[in-house]
Write a structure and sequence with these properties.
This protein has 256 residues and is mainly alpha-helical. The protein has a single domain, classed as Four Helix Bundle (Hemerythrin (Met), subunit A), CATH 1.20.120.1770. 71% of the residues lie in helices and 0% in strands. The chain has 9 helices and no strands. Helix 3 packs antiparallel against helix 9, helix 5 packs antiparallel against helix 8 and helix 5 runs parallel beside helix 9.
Length: 256
């Protein structure tokens, strides 16, 4: 039997590599798509609360509650997702790492502040109207996510931003930090989607707008939940993509 020619060898073993190369989407257009999706999620949750739920207020009534979904989606999902993807930007792969650390930590801190304000809104609404706190699965999941998020930020700040943190500690904690980063994002998405569903069950009760009849508000909010879920899946997929990971380096610059 004749040995395969160079052309035949190229067609055989190299086909999977060519297919993978064709499917290798550049990061910038993906980032633009993901950013547009995040803005869309924030716009839709704001529209839902403004158009169907009566708008926003700080008087402790139902309009105070409306700050809760807007701030949680903006902070716990969109801002947090943006913070998670900072090191996937190709410009971060060379040069000083400290500015990107500050951007990553700043976005995460902004997400945390918005999340705390969102929690304050829902607790004020509950307390002003005599509604019990922390009884639903959504509330347990949401508060657990926020507590895990706060621990993640505090430990990450101490390990990666403080100059006296030893190199061995950073190397030991880095995979743990990455793992919990993706975990917190998935929990955030689950908390937001369950919260949307819970709000629809509580709000759509009368005979003309019952949730089971799928009125316009239900269709709108369900679509919002699907888009939030899609945003989270895309972020986790980007974090898992090997070709978008920042190359590890043993240089002094990478260990600043």
């Amino acid at each position: 039997m004749a040995a395969p020619s160079d052309d035949e060898g190229a067609v055989g073993p190299r086909c999977p590599q060519r297919s993978m190369a064709m499917l290798d989407i550049p990061f910038p257009p993906f980032c633009a798509l993901l950013g547009s999706l995040g803005v869309l999620c924030v716009a839709l949750v704001g529209t839902w609360c403004q158009h169907w739920r009566g708008g926003f207020s700080l008087d402790g009534g139902s309009r105070t509650f409306n700050w809760h979904p807007v701030l949680m989606v903006t902070g716990l999902v969109v801002f947090y997702g943006a913070a998670a993807l900072v090191y996937r930007i190709p410009y971060t792969w060379n040069g000083p790492k400290l500015p990107w650390k500050l951007l990553h930590g700043g976005l995460a801190l902004g997400a945390f502040i918005l999340t705390v304000l969102g929690l304050a809104a829902v607790f004020r609404f509950h307390n002003s109207n005599g509604i019990p706190n922390m009884y639903s699965l959504h509330s347990w999941m949401g508060l657990g996510t926020v507590l895990l998020f706060s621990c993640q930020w505090a430990v990450g700040f101490g390990a990666f931003l403080l100059p006296w943190a030893p190199t061995w500690l950073r190397q030991l904690y880095k995979p743990i930090h990455v793992f919990f980063g993706s975990t917190i994002l998935m929990l955030s998405v689950a908390s937001c989607v369950s919260g949307i569903n819970e709000k629809l069950f509580f709000s759509l009760k009368n005979g003309t707008t019952e949730y089971k009849l799928l009125p316009a508000e239900a269709v709108f909010a369900n679509t919002l939940g699907i888009l939030i879920l899609l945003f989270g899946v895309l972020v986790v997929g980007a974090l898992a993509r090997p070709s978008w990971k920042r190359p590890d380096s043993d240089s002094l610059d990478s260990r600043q």
